[in-house]
């Protein structure tokens, strides 16, 4: 791998071909397609729990406040962010509009309007994985050059949420659609209402939980575990550890990219049916180990991604 460049591929992203092969060999996987009604209930419960904590249980002691943010708030934020990911694949309801409204409501604890913009750009990531100027999931060259070495990569881990939010504006700007505008209006209104219930300290709890959710938090390992090259020749990686029970099985990432219309709750069934296509792929065993390797392995950097021109 070149030190100052990404790994460029002339081949189509790997999931198209594997999806085609699995569909031909195991047509029964079609039964896994569709929505998971329980997803709506679970995601709303987590979102309302994160909102309820600063309204009813926020400690005045600054040390206890900090511990609550670091141990509880950041974890719930990760679960909510990945819940939005699941919902924006239209996996909670059959109607797209119902999924959109659910994502907008679940978005409340994240402080800023995120869900609908994420939906638009994440679709590009799936259907144009690694494509230069389209897939905004990849770092840009100056970003990869600037955040180098353990310290640079650590800083990037901490601030990757604002970077992820700003990067699309430079890489692939899109005009906001009506759902993104609705997301913004509803989110601002929700935060005004939340202020009257929880005050500035409540807003601070939500904001810090969102900002500090990345960095060394174990779940944040998924950001680098999914597509950073940890084994030459492989572009997407799964993780089958216990965190999946809390994060909607997002660790089943090869399976998810192969079949984004299968709810996370059914991805283990997909792997069981088509195991021969997944068992030989390299899979991460620990998100914490992924973070450690990312920080201290000189072979892994922000350039450790596959890019393509077509």
From TrEMBL:
GO cellular component entries: membrane
InterPro entries (alphabetical): FA_desaturase_dom, Sphingolipid_d4-desaturase_N
Any GO MF annotation of the entry: sphingolipid delta-4 desaturase activity
Cited Pfam families: FA_desaturase, Lipid_DES
Domain of life, per lineage: Bacteria
A GO biological process held by the record: ceramide biosynthetic process
Annotated TM spans: 39-57, 63-88, 100-121, 151-170, 182-208
Residue ranges of every copy of the Sphingolipid delta4-desaturase N-terminal domain listed in the record: 1-39
Keywords: Membrane, Transmembrane, Transmembrane helix
Keyword Thylakoid: no
UniProt name for this protein: Sphingolipid delta-4 desaturase
Species of origin: Ekhidna lutea
